[in-house]
Amino acid sequence: MKDTAYKIIMYWARPTGYLSSKVPELAGCMARGVTRAAAVRKAEAAIDSWIQIAREDALSIPEPRGKPMPA
């Protein structure tokens, strides 16, 4: 994934034991992982997939509201 400024919100999903993550700027974009690192990695992959599908379908892609994280 390239540098992104899309916000990733994570929360603990107690019943499942996973960390769930949502990307509020991209409707329906979410992921989950057993660790924080896994949840972030999967959320980043979900962002890439969301954007790729939106481009293929000629849909509007919201601009990120934040600034990219430094490497």
Round the mean pLDDT to the nearest integer and report it: 87
Count of helices? 1
Please describe the biggest sheet, giving its number of strands, its sense, and whether it closes into a barrel.
3 strands, antiparallel
Oligomer: single chain
Beta-strand share of residues: 15-25%
The helix/strand series, from N terminus to C terminus, equals EEEH
Q: Give, in spatial order, the strands making up the sheet with the most strands.
A: 1-2-3
How far is the N terminus from the C terminus?
12 Å
Structure characterization notes:
- The chain is of the alpha+beta class.
- 30% of the residues lie in helices and 20% in strands.
- It contains one helix and three strands; from the N terminus they run E-E-E-H.
- It has one helix spanning 36-56, and strands spanning 9-13, 18-22, 30-33.
- It has a three-stranded antiparallel sheet with strand order 1-2-3, covered by helices on one side.
- A hairpin with a 7-residue loop joins strand 2 and strand 3 (30-33).
- The longest helix is centred in the middle third of the chain and has 21 residues, at 36-56.
- It is globular and about 35 Å long.
- The termini are close together.
- The mean pLDDT is 87.
